[in-house]
Amino acid sequence: IFTTGQRINFKRTFAPHLRPIETAGALTQAALDNPNYDTVRARIEWLMASPENVTDELVDVRVKFYKMPELQVAMRGSIPGMGGGAGESPRYEEEDCKRIQVPSLVVWGDHNPTGGPDIGEYFASLIPGAKFFNLLDAAHWPQYEHAEEHDQVIADFIHGN
Question: What is the predicted pLDDT for the residue at 65?
Fold first, then answer.
């Protein structure tokens, strides 16, 4: 199950990002360098379709995560150009997706600022037999923005519905 994410070197181009992708890098860098309420909230708001859905509780929890050394290493390694170095997460080729032989589901938010549903749909098309689900009025965190619908889609997929 892939939820709004992929590390694929696609061989085609997609519609422009809904928001400048450079902003994501700058917000992530600020949150990693100085994890406090304001820097973390700004990053989370960028990831949401409706920033007013960002609660103080969510920000407080994420600030604690951003202060964890393990998360610092993982985040810096997962975003190109963040200085992950040897720990940088690998990227995969389209051909790698074609070798996935297990039932797969790609869940996407229609307001995902890192790329629209066309990316998620194409990603799913690369995996043999994969299903695609586009959550409406959701961005990069549909599992938080529409938790009940997201969880039902996941449960239905797991149960073969």
Answer: 94
